[in-house]
Design goal:
heterodimer, A: mainly alpha, globular, B: alpha+beta, 6-stranded antiparallel β-barrel, 5 helices
Chain lengths: 169, 288
């Protein structure tokens, strides 16, 4: 096997991990370059975690997700462990959905994203509200959750496409 | 009924405890670990604060590299935008130069008059107009997230930066240091919802609290007297009350928007700040 093929395989197999850490280090919150579009702030991390834990659990370990949460907390300046716990709650609900679902369809997966997203953000909100002095607009968190839910199908097709290409290669 | 309940319990147990093919840790173990970290982070033990500072420094250094592509895209967008706006800006700047020249003449006259009057009243010059800007630092990252508006600086405790120090962009107040690590520090911007600064409004001399709105450069004036009406084009300065910041630092200006509503905007623009100055922490004895 050539070195090029090995490197390509390595990137293809660990693609979700790279994206997850890249957005965590960058504290990605949406389209920031255009200030007026900050309204579209959404959590790409949550979409990645939900998609991969649901569809390709072998691609994204819980340990990596936990670490991504810690990085996000450090970068954001929020209480350490809050985002990790929120991501793990998302993983728990997603894993539960995966265990009880027999037939997977895009629409069912999309709507099944609501409870995990709600509980993950609820946990984050409770921790930040009770264990730190940071105040923020609750509507922003709601808006972030809404757009995360809304943009899920776009990333669903994108990640599915990438994953299929990676498997074919 | 009992069977379906058993199924739910099995599914929950499987989700929490099953490790799966490539999983090294179970969800249950990681959830417990997260709770432990939250508890430790809340505590004020020296070991936990120093561990967090090391972790912060390490992550910030990686962030610096990881945010490169994003910064490049932002730079391209901003340069394109600036290129199209440059003609109008030039025209506007010419007018501003003319206005500033007039103001400078007036100001030098008032300065001289003020010095003469102070001398005749035997008052010492309590404060210089230039603030003590002791450390210049590079902005390594800016986080304009919906939750926290902050900047990361390339200097920390090693360079003498301490919590509570004011941070300037040009001559305007940008924020206050809220977190210090050995190699880096974090500035809470005045536009953040958590920022509260005691201020004084030009002309009327009214005291108020300037709070961040969390939205772009907009700020909010709280605790104004009843029936107080704000005019446009007024500069808002720090009042120095509470011994938190030096009095007389220009923070914001009032503007009249399209609907003739008066809005308060920060004079310093965090998105344009690349090099900032960290000032000496204010102690009231200095001004006395």
């Amino acid at each position: 096997m050539s070195i090029y093929k090995r490197i390509k395989d390595f990137f293809a197999n660990n693609f979700p991990l790279f994206i997850l850490y890249f957005v965590s280090f960058n504290s990605f919150e949406g389209i920031k370059a255009i200030e007026d579009l900050l309204i579209f702030s959404f959590s790409l991390q949550m979409i990645i975690i939900y998609f991969y834990v649901l569809k390709y659990p072998e691609s994204l370990g819980y340990g990596y997700i936990f670490l991504a949460g810690i990085i996000h907390d450090v970068v954001q300046g929020t209480i350490l462990g809050a985002t990790s716990l929120s991501y793990l709650i998302l993983c728990f609900f997603t894993s539960y959905i995966r265990n009880v679902t027999l037939r997977f369809k895009m629409t069912t997966e999309w709507f099944a994203f609501i409870p995990p997203l709600f509980f993950a953000n609820l946990i984050f909100f409770i921790i930040v509200n009770n264990f730190s002095n940071i105040s923020f607009y609750y509507i922003e968190l709601l808006r972030n959750s809404f757009f995360t839910f809304l943009f899920f199908p776009i990333f669903y097709y994108l990640f599915n496409l990438l994953q299929k290409r990676a498997t074919l290669d | 009924m009992a069977d379906s309940r058993d199924d739910v319990i099995i599914a929950i147990r499987s989700a929490l405890l099953k490790k799966g093919a490539k999983q090294k840790f179970s969800l249950f173990f990681l959830i417990i670990l997260s709770i432990l970290i939250i508890t430790l982070d809340k505590s004020t033990y020296k070991i936990t604060t120093s561990t967090r500072a090391i972790l912060n420094d390490f992550v910030y250094q990686i962030t610096l590299v990881a945010s490169g592509p994003g910064k490049f895209i932002k730079y391209i967008v901003l340069s394109t935008k600036t290129h199209f706006e440059i003609y109008d800006e030039n025209k506007d700047l010419k007018n501003k130069i003319l206005f500033l020249k007039k103001t400078k003449i007036n100001s030098s006259f008032l300065k001289t008059e003020n010095r003469i009057l102070k001398n005749s009243l035997d008052l010492s010059n309590s404060k210089s107009s230039e603030f003590d800007k002791i450390i210049s630092a590079k902005v390594t990252n800016d986080y304009q997230s919906p939750f926290l508006k902050s900047l990361l600086l390339s200097k920390g405790k090693k360079d003498g930066i301490m919590k509570g120090m004011p941070v300037f962009s040009g001559n305007y107040l940008l924020g206050v240091i809220i977190e210090t690590n050995y190699l880096s520090s974090r500035v809470l911007l005045i536009t953040d919802l958590n920022s509260k600064i005691p201020v004084l409004i030009e002309k009327s001399g009214t005291n108020a609290i300037l709070s961040g709105s969390g939205k772009k450069l907009n700020l909010v004036l709280d605790y104004l007297p009843d029936n107080f009406e704000l005019d446009s084009d007024l500069i808002i300065f720090t009042s120095g009350k509470g011994g938190f910041l030096e009095p007389g630092i220009a923070v914001a200006q009032t503007y009249s928007n399209k609907n003739n509503k008066i809005i308060v905007k920060s004079l310093a623009d965090p998105s344009q700040a690349s090099i900032v100055y960290v000032g000496k922490p204010y102690t009231q004895q200095e001004s006395e």
